[in-house]
From TrEMBL:
InterPro entries according to UniProt: ABC1_TM_dom, ABC1_TM_sf, ABC_transporter-like_ATP-bd, P-loop_NTPase, Type_1_exporter
Transmembrane segments: 23-43, 63-87, 127-149, 161-183, 237-264, 276-296
Keyword Iron-sulfur tagged: no
UniProtKB keywords: Membrane, Transmembrane, Transmembrane helix
Protein name, UniProt field: ABC transporter transmembrane region
Residues covered by region (Disordered): 389-412
Signal peptide: none
Molecular function, one GO term: ABC-type oligopeptide transporter activity
Keyword Membrane set for record: yes
Primary location class: membrane
Compartments, as annotated in UniProt: Cell membrane
Organism listed in the record: Subdoligranulum variabile DSM 15176
Domain of life per record: Bacteria
């Protein structure tokens, strides 16, 4: 059975999927507003903290504002966390509902080409990956961008040359993040694929436990699931090795940048370009910028890691659905069931070639044959679970080209 491939690219299918899922845009907008507010309050709290470290303990001018801003920051942080949790839960719910509605509306031939058990992973694991991608990558990337720009503006208010010196520290983090993201993408996608295969194997055999025991096939089925579990184990271990190799590299780069930040700030403070309080604040702001940049490399890694899951779900959502309005309404069906020169196959495998068959009305007709001979397919064709395409102009009535389904069924 051949399906029409979606014409959209993977990125287009992904955003089309999000549009169909109807994300909680009001909650997402609220989360972004709260995040922006939290960034501004955090900058004010840092400046008051720097004043205290510099020895300015003015009670009304520094201490009281510091306590108020710190309390407001805690409240906003709690509100932000609550909204984030609600957003993720709603995104999960909407995506799962949209994907499940799509699955039950797909034509029967889709399940012939794709193992239905694998769809469990599409609705569970892959959806969780996408919701985490939206909340913990896309939205955090936006808020981190605003935070980074705001911090640079604040540093520039101290000294423009200090801002330029900070920019010089950034390229190394970008290079490391891109390389790590490319490496982890392939491994994470492989882990997701192995998870789907293991889930499919276990789900299928759990439902057939009595049949397995009846045929004394326990050993064979143990080995079949064991092979998938072993493949999943090997991929997971390799992914863990790569992850734990990349982490120390990040730590080393961060340590080097910490030293450079201290030395740069000390130089500007020594020549009187900035005050002591500004040096302390600059040290905090520069580290926040580095942390934001490090987070961006993590966002890139997460994006590449989740790309497989997003492509799989987006591909399901892009599949053409059954046309429920196709056909003509009929009353009570009467007469024989007739297959007239039927030609039908799955992909390149031809099952029926020029089949002519009449099933008389009012009589019991038995269809007998070995497994795989087409008995179930014949019933599916009668029920029109496989919709026939239009015959080619050169083909005779009731036939199509090889490899395409033709359900030339009817009643007379």
């Amino acid at each position: 059975m051949q399906n029409k491939q979606p014409s959209q690219g993977s990125l287009g299918r992904f955003f089309s999927m999000l549009w169909k899922a109807r994300l909680p845009y009001a909650w997402i907008a609220g989360y972004l507003v709260v995040s922006v507010l939290m960034t501004n309050v955090g900058i004010s709290a840092t400046e008051y903290t720097a004043q205290l470290y510099a020895g300015n303990v003015d009670f009304w001018g520094v201490v009281i504002p510091f306590l108020v801003v710190s309390l407001v920051s805690l409240v906003i942080g709690s509100v932000s966390g609550m909204i984030s949790g609600i957003c993720m839960a709603r995104i999960d719910r909407n995506l799962r509902r949209a994907v499940w509605q799509k699955i039950v509306r797909l034509p029967f031939g889709y399940y012939q080409q794709n193992a239905p058990k694998e769809l469990i992973s599409r609705v569970t694991t892959d959806i969780s990956t996408i919701s985490a991608l939206i909340m913990q990558v896309f939205l955090l990337a936006l808020t981190s961008l605003y935070s980074t720009v705001r911090l640079f503006v604040q540093i520039r208010s101290y000294n423009s040359r200090l801002m330029v010196a900070t920019l010089v520290l950034l390229p190394l983090q970008v290079v490391i993040g891109v390389l790590a993201g490319q490496l982890k993408f392939g491994l994470s996608d492989e882990v997701n694929r192995r998870t789907a295969e293991l889930t499919e194997a276990v789900s299928e055999r759990t439902g057939q436990a009595m049949l397995i025991k009846s045929f004394s096939a326990q050993k064979r089925e143990e080995e079949a699931v064991g092979r998938r579990a072993k493949a999943f184990y090997r991929t997971s271990v390799l992914n863990a090795w790569v992850t734990n190799f990349v982490s120390p590299v990040y730590v080393l780069v961060g340590a080097l940048q910490f030293i450079v930040i201290v030395m740069v700030g000390r130089g500007f403070y020594a020549d009187g370009s900035i005050t002591l309080a500004q040096w302390v604040a600059y040290f905090v702001f520069a580290n926040q910028i580095i942390n934001n940049l490090t987070a961006y490399t993590g966002y890139w890694t997460s994006l590449k890691s989740a790309q497989g899951a997003t492509n799989r779900v987006a591909a399901v959502m892009a599949e053409p659905e059954e046309d429920r309005d196709a056909g003509e309404p009929v009353g009570t069906l009467q007469g024989d069931i007739v297959f007239d020169h039927l030609r039908f196959g799955y992909g390149e495998t031809l099952l029926f070639d020029d089949l002519c068959l009449t099933i008389p009305q009012g009589r019991a007709t038995a269809v007998i044959g070995p497994s795989g001979s087409g008995k179930t397919t014949l019933l599916n064709l009668v029920e029109r679970l496989y919709p026939p395409p239009k015959p080619a102009p050169s083909a005779s009535a009731g036939t199509t080209s090889a490899g395409f389904p033709s359900a030339a069924t009817g009643r007379r």
